[in-house]
């Protein structure tokens, strides 16, 4: 290589070629040095920050050690002062066990946040379908109670007793109640069959449907029987359905055909819908979209109904759960004790 001062006096063409070659050598040297000293990877975060993110996320989210965590590229976000990083959790060898979650990282790299966005453009009451099922109560009521029910479930029977007649009578004309099917067939072997029969009845008469549901929720043990024979339970359900059809003067030929067919497609569709809502147990009740899981006490149910009524501009009827407690009267449990009366001063004998 020519010394730098040798550039003087040579032709412009040679000088230009020499400058290009020198520039290339410098770039290669810088690139080599950069490979050793580079601390900012392609995701826009230095290695130390990436490590801090992984350790923090593992600790805060209790991520199992066998899961891998990959911190994605840093990209602009719509949150002032923050960028977005996509963090992927994966289990090696199991491509179906992978999830990517967006996080926020502050511009200075010192704060990591997880922001959940929820769509509130829709009325919660509209997210739980109810228009295609038999209704009890006022069909035009502004508060809708949707109960995901299992006709073999003892806790559902308890909720059923809580709803009918006490709750329905108390909110007379202010609510309507709808049942949707969620038979837990793994633990309740005749629940699907019962739901199919109930729907066969509902296709002809709403009141007859409710009578059938009432009976099953009060005679579940009779249907199960001491032998717990599923075939016998199914036969009992079919006899009960026909008896209900006769009592309600339904088209018995049509009812018999529906019961004999045992088409589970509608029930399965409702089960799939419940799964999409994340429902984990029965009963699960929605009051204008607000969820209550399990057989809860009347106080919890009525307090939720009251909230829904108030949001619709309706004053709830008074009950023991929405009225201020009255102070206990003296002598009653919980009442403050009366001050002791001053003892009379003894009088000398012979005085009044």
Quaternary state, please? single chain
What's the number of extended β-strand segments? 9
Secondary-structure element sequence? HHEEEEEEHEHHHHHHEEH
Distance between the ends = 138 Å
Spatial extent as radius of gyration: 36 Å
- Read across the widest sheet, the strand sequence of neighbours is 5-7-6-8-9
Q: By helix and strand content, what is the structural category?
A: alpha+beta
> Strand fraction band?
15-25%
Q: Any idea of the CATH class of the largest domain? A: Alpha Beta
CATH topology-level name of the largest domain? Glutaredoxin
Which labels suit this protein?
352 residues; alpha+beta; Glutaredoxin; 2 domains; 5-stranded mixed β-sheet; 4-stranded antiparallel β-sheet; 9 strands; globular; disordered C terminus
Any overview of this molecule?
The chain has two domains: 47-113; 124-311, Glutaredoxin (3-Layer(aba) Sandwich). Strand 6 (143-149), helix 3 (154-170) and strand 7 (175-181) form a beta-alpha-beta unit. The protein is an alpha+beta fold and 352 residues long. The longest helix is centred in the first third of the chain and has 26 residues, at 12-37. The strands form two sheets. Strands 5-7-6-8-9 form a five-stranded mixed sheet. A four-stranded antiparallel sheet has the order 1-2-3-4, with helices on one face. It contains ten helices and nine strands.
């Amino acid at each position: 290589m020519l010394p730098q001062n040798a550039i003087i006096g040579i032709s412009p063409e040679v000088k230009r070629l020499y400058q290009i070659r020198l520039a290339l050598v410098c770039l290669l040297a810088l690139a080599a040095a950069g490979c050793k000293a580079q601390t900012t990877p392609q995701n826009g975060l230095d290695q130390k920050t990436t490590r801090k993110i992984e350790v923090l996320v593992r600790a805060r989210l209790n991520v199992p050690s066998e899961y891998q965590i990959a911190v994605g590229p840093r990209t602009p976000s719509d949150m002032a002062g923050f960028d977005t990083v996509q963090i992927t959790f994966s289990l090696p060898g199991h491509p179906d066990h992978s999830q990517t979650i967006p996080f926020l990282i502050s511009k200075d790299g010192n704060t990591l946040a997880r922001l959940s966005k929820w769509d509130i453009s829709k009325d919660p009451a509209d997210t739980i379908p109810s228009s295609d099922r038999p209704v009890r109560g006022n069909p035009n009521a502004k508060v809708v109670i949707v109960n995901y029910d299992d006709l073999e479930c003892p806790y559902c029977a308890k909720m059923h007793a809580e709803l009918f007649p006490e709750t329905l009578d108390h909110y007379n004309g202010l609510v309507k109640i709808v049942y949707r099917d969620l038979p837990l067939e793994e633990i309740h072997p005749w629940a699907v069959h019962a739901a199919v029969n109930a729907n066969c009845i509902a296709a002809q008469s709403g009141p007859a449907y409710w009578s059938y549901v009432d009976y099953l929720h009060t005679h579940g043990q009779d249907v199960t029987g001491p032998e717990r024979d599923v075939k016998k339970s199914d036969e009992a359900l079919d006899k009960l359905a026909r008896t209900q059809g006769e009592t309600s003067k339904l088209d018995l030929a049509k009812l018999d055909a529906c019961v004999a067919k045992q088409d589970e497609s509608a029930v399965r569709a409702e089960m799939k819908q419940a799964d999409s809502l994340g429902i984990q147990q029965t009963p699960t009740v929605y009051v204008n979209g607000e969820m209550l899981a399990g057989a809860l006490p009347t106080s919890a149910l009525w307090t939720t109904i009251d909230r829904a009524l108030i949001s619709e501009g309706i004053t709830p009827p008074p009950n023991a759960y929405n009225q201020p407690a009255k102070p206990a009267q003296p002598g009653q449990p919980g009442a403050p004790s009366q001050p002791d009366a001053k003892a009379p001063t003894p009088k000398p004998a012979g005085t009044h």
